[in-house]
Design brief:
mainly beta, Immunoglobulin-like, 2 domains, six-stranded antiparallel sheet, 21 strands, elongated
Length: about 270
């Protein structure tokens, strides 16, 4: 029913790879759901900062990505999708996270996010189905340039079969250009000056050193790549060179995000747990 015969029971696209069109491919859900995109399904994608749509990004900052789909009928109550961000060369950039949304998973080294089961839509007052989900995206390092978000969304009737005859209706969509803010990498902001995280990779402990006179309370949070908060502590910084340690012995081996907030400023960096 969703995106591929090879994985109908799980609701995912199986091994068909990126179908969003970000890499220049014309493929969508056509392997199982008809050769052509259907304009009855409409997609918009927005990048949000603090709930406000933005058209530029700060390298290394974390944003919300809102995927909004609509099907102009009342017969397709469920949907599947893929979503990614890509630069002008068609290379996926940044890190996607599920943000706690159920029924979805990250793929391709966390550069693409997709459904892991059929997702429920919402019947709107005008008798159309809408499909809205929000995820997290951590922008790439400085130098990635302008990016766009690309998505493919398949509105389905839920009958358990891949209806290539029009029962399911898929389409693609993309965001406006999201430009990189020049000279605004988080590494160049006051918060980052003198900040160091080590060792990386880390074993039992992770240390954060603040070589800065910007004193006060720092909120330090460790999250996994799905956006789940694993640790969160407040540290009072009162002297340049002060070190804070986090016990990470209980974390499974893998990649995590360390988020630091202070006086309205924020930075997120990756670290590896051995």
């Amino acid at each position: 029913m969703l995106l591929a015969v090879s994985s109908m029971q799980s609701g995912t696209h199986g091994t068909l790879g990126n179908r969003t069109g970000s890499n220049g491919s014309n493929d969508g859900c056509n392997s199982c759901h008809g050769d052509n995109a259907n304009t009855a399904t409409v997609i918009t994608i927005e990048l949000l900062s603090g709930g406000t749509p933005v058209t530029s990004y700060t390298p290394g900052a974390t944003y919300t990505v809102r995927l909004n789909g609509q099907n102009q009928t009342n017969a397709r109550s469920k949907f599947g999708f893929q979503l990614t961000a890509a630069n002008n060369a068609g290379t996926s950039v940044g890190t996607m996270a599920t943000n706690g949304v159920s029924g979805v998973a990250t793929k391709a080294n966390n550069t693409l996010i997709e459904h892991s089961q059929p997702l429920d839509g919402t019947l709107s007052p005008d008798n159309n189905y809408t499909y809205v989900r929000e995820f997290s995206w951590t922008a790439p390092a400085a130098g990635a340039g302008t990016v766009k978000f690309y998505a493919v969304l398949n509105a389905v009737n839920g009958n358990g079969t891949p209806d290539a005859n029009g029962g399911d209706q898929w389409n693609k969509g993309q965001s406006v250009n999201i430009t990189e803010e020049q000279g605004s990498s988080l590494k160049q902001q006051n918060l980052i000056t003198g900040l160091a995280v080590f060792p990386n990779p880390a074993g039992k402990e992770l240390s954060l050193v603040l070589n800065t006179t910007d004193y006060g309370a720092y909120e330090v949070t460790i999250v996994d790549l799905s956006g789940r908060i694993l640790q969160s502590k407040m540290h009072m910084h009162s002297g340049s060179g002060q070190s804070f340690r986090s016990d990470i012995a209980s974390l499974a081996s893998g990649t995590y995000l360390l988020n630091v907030k202070h006086n309205g400023k924020e930075v997120t960096t990756k670290f590896q747990k051995l």
